[in-house]
Structures are given as C-alpha cells and as structure tokens.
Amino acid sequence: MKVAAFLFALAAVTVPAYSADVIAELSRRSHISQPELNELLSDCTRHQLSMNICAFRDFIAADLEMQTVLSSKLSMLPKRCHSTIEKRQARWEEARDLRCNKEADAEAEGGSMRPMIYSGCRTEATMARVALIKKVPSCAKVP
Q1: Contact in structure between 62 and 123 (CB atoms under 8 Å)
Q2: What is the pTM of this model?
Q3: How far apart are CA 122 and CA 137, in angstroms?
Q4: How many CB atoms lie within 10 A of CB 80?
Q5: Exposure class string for 86-114: b at 16+ Cβ within 10 A, else e
Q6: What is the pLDDT of residue 13?
Q7: Mean per-residue pLDDT for 96-123?
C-alpha cells in the first residue's frame, strides 16, 4: 500500500468503535496504558504517533478477528487437520510479516511513518486472510 493512499484512507475513514478487547490487547502489545491510548486514539490524524497507534490498533483488531475465524474453522474440521492448518497459518504469518517489513522499509526509508506503513500492510493482508479462511471448506484447501 502506498503511503499517500494509506494516509488518505486513514483521514477519510470514520473511526469505528473498537471493543474493549482490542484496546486491552493494544495496551498489552504496545505497553501503553489504556488512558494514554485513549488520548492517542482520539484523533488519528493529530500527529505521527497517533497515526502509528491507530494503524497498530487496526492491525490488532484484524489479528483478533483472524484468530477467532481460524479457531471457529478449526472447531468445524476434524482434529487431524488442525496441525496442518496451524503450520500453514504460521508460515503465512511469517511471510506476511517479511513482505510487510520490506514494504515498510521501501516506502518509509526508516522514517517515523514506518510503523504505520507496516501495520497498514499487515492489516490489509490479515483481512484478506480472514476472507480466505471463511471461504475454505476443508483443511486440504487452506493455503
């Protein structure tokens, strides 16, 4: 995702309500207190730190949704499939993070926007993965 397109999307989007679980997980992963997060999240265009935190929050929401969808999918499939799917999922996450690191490095060149670009890339990829997991009818079909 190009930086300008991401910034436009971030500014144009109405901020959805995020569950307490997302904010709690954001606090846990970022080591920022929930009151501080609420302040940073109150205006996602205020400054670069707010943009970075808002993008990270969006990734965490997508990641938690993916975990829920994957868990639900596993509960519907035979136990013999679980290990295969879990291994494929781990490989996919590793490849996503590698690709997003490269994208963030190329676009941000080590600048303060890098965390936002990295999180935006991971969010986009994760949401695509959620859609794919929802469609997959069996363990043999999970890429």
Answers
A1: yes
A2: 0.85
A3: 24
A4: 8
A5: eeebeebbeebeeebeebbeebbeeeebb
A6: 45
A7: 95
- DSSP letters, 25-56, are HHHHHHT--HHHHHHHHT-TTSSHHHHHHHHH
Q: Mark residue 125 as left, alpha or beta (left: phi above 0; alpha: psi -120 to 50; beta: remaining).
A: alpha
User: So what's the pLDDT on residue 15?
Assistant: 47
Structural domains of the chain, ranges and CATH numbers in brackets? 19-138 (1.20.1270.180)
CB of 136 within 8 A of CB of 73? yes
- Residues with Cβ within 8 Å of residue 108, at least 6 apart in sequence: 3, 114, 117
Q: For 59-95, write each residue's pLDDT tens digit.
A: 999 999 999 999 998 998 888 889 988 999 999 999 9
